[in-house]
Amino acid sequence: MAAQKHITVSVDTAGYKPAVISADLLTIQKIFLNLLNNAVKYTPDGGHIWVQLRIEQLGQGKLQAEVSIRDNGIGMHQAFLSHIYEPFAQEQRTGYKGTGTGLGLAIVKQMVDLLQGTISVESRVYEGTEFRVSLPLEEGESMPAAPVKSEADFARLAGRKILVCEDNALNQEIICELLKEQGLLVDTAENGQLGVEAFSSSSIGEYDAILMDIRMDIRMPVMGGLEAAQCIRRSNISVPIIALSANAREEDKQLSLAAGMNAHLMKPIDTYQLFTTLVRLIS
User: Fold this and answer.
1) What's the CATH code of the domain at 95?
2) Neighbouring-strand partners of residue 55
3) Which segments of the chain are extended strands (E)?
4) Labelling 246: which of 14, 125, 127, 151 has CA 20 to 30 A away?
5) 113 falls within a domain
6) Facing residues of 67 across strands?
7) Chain segment 50-78, per-residue pLDDT in tens
């Protein structure tokens, strides 16, 4: 994308010391791909982007990664900076038509929070923008003690079709983005009733798995996640159904399993755990 706009990208890793890191690779990739995508999108032809990486060893297996992404693009007004992480927020600029959903930075913020990191921004109109991300990391072993799922395993998911039942627009967008990045096909339903209808009207074997938000039971005036799972399970005993929940209590997990679900995952979504579970259940 940068080459198409004749934008030069400089990467400074002078502060990087090689280390084996134990981290959620897919989430980290998503954070920086979103930020770099924005930098290219809002930098005019012939502009420049600077990326700087620093990794500090804190001792006792702890690391701190500091990443800066700076551009000399169109920048943002100061009044808008306090809203940039809000879902669907897009600054209206005279002479410039923004593109996209306005969810990119909201997704970035949620993922940085998931990794217990911080993100900050400085920007000036027509001068550019700089995002700084700080992430706590842990040192890993040079050779894993046991085999783990790799990106090669996750690649087997490409082309599989998933039904996502989630009523929150931002959460739905995040989950769909993660799945599509891995090459999966996605359909969505905003409540349990629509999820049941979508599955019932699908052809046999059309969906390889279902992701079901069980919080819908509390908030939705129509069928919730647990009831929807029970309805689907009455007609199909084989399709994997994965519960998504903000509750980590053992009783919540047992409710999911009792409703016919195959797994219970916590929100915010851990991408590695999500894809590992999908590989295991779909295989």
Assistant:
1) 3.30.565.10
2) 65
3) 8-15, 21-22, 48-59, 62-71, 118-124, 128-139, 161-165, 185-189, 209-213, 241-245, 263-266
4) 151
5) yes
6) 53, 133
7) 999 998 888 888 999 999 999 999 999 99
